[in-house]
Amino acid sequence: MPPSTPFATPGIWLKANLHAHTTASDGDSPPATRVQQYRDAGYDVLAITDHHTVVPIAELDRPGMVLLQSLEAHPACPGGPIYHLVCLNVPVGFACGEGESAQSLIDRARAAGGEVILAHPYWCGRTIEQIQALDHLLAIEVYNSTCRRIGKGDSSVVWDYLLATGTTLPAVAVDDVHHDDDLYGGWTMIRAREATSEAVLEALRAGAFYASCGPEITDFGYANGAFFLRCSPVAEISFIGRGAQGRSFFASHHGEPLQEALWTASANLPYIRAMVTDFAGRRAWTQPLRPTA
Ligand SMILES: [Zn+2]
Ligand SMILES: [Zn+2]
Q1: Please, are residues 89 and 69 in contact by the beta-carbon 8 Å criterion?
Q2: Domain ranges of the chain
Q3: Helix, strand or coil for residue 71?
Q4: What's the 198 CA to ligand 1 centre distance in angstroms?
Q5: Model pTM?
Q6: CATH architecture of the region 217-285
Q7: What protein residues have CB closer than 5 angstroms to ion ligand 1?
Q8: pLDDT category of residue 229 using cuts at 50, 70 and 90
Q9: Which ligand has an atom closest to residue 50 CA?
Q10: pLDDT tens for residues 235-260?
Q11: Superfamily, domain 6-209
Q12: Residue 231 main-chain phi, psi, to 5 deg
């Protein structure tokens, strides 16, 4: 668990989509069009993550964008069909071997300089035990725009079970865009020292990011015996911990929005994560934080 939050870390905010498909697998737009779409929408970072194939980023025109050369791989899951693993920053030709285990794939991706995110756990229906069998994941997807098609975009509850049972992972929000109407629904704000792939990976490894479908979070932390959060105008601010631990704050009945919350809480809590919800129902999620007195 990171000792501090990205909000207290020097650097710049970079808006990222870490999961995108193109015509190199089952997406409806070519890689160059995907890059253009996200660049035009103000994103700074894009990972093209086609199924089974790594699109070479050297061939893509990308002024103003950090591209992560990536892949979505599908190793078998013991007791279930397959995992969906997003492998960021892997070499061209990197692929899941025939019969290769998920752990072997994760280990090889990391040895090659990459990192692996567990994609859309709610949509996949993997059990907590099947997820906890994997070591050295970078993060899980708490939100996936494409999975909202079957009402399973939000994997918050899966994340909470992992956190509550000792698997401390941060979370990202992604589009997993296949079709143009999956664009721009969920993204990850990364606090990096500069806009380079090296700095983005460094920030991801440090847990210096938060996930959003709309709201902006500007501060979250624990000081003087209380958790605090500041954000763009929202309807709800929730501090969420293990089991029944936590507290929510709501906008007034007159519709006056919240932009901050302060919750006095024990420094003995194992962790608290924060989640905000705007008046359109769009959420943003911080990483879990262990309070220190
Ligand atoms: Zn997938
Ligand atoms: Zn995907």
Answers
A1: yes
A2: 6-209, 217-285
A3: strand
A4: 25
A5: 0.97
A6: Sandwich (2.60)
A7: 84, 119
A8: very high
A9: 2
A10: 999 999 999 999 999 998 888 999 99
A11: Metal-dependent hydrolases (3.20.20.140)
A12: -160, 175
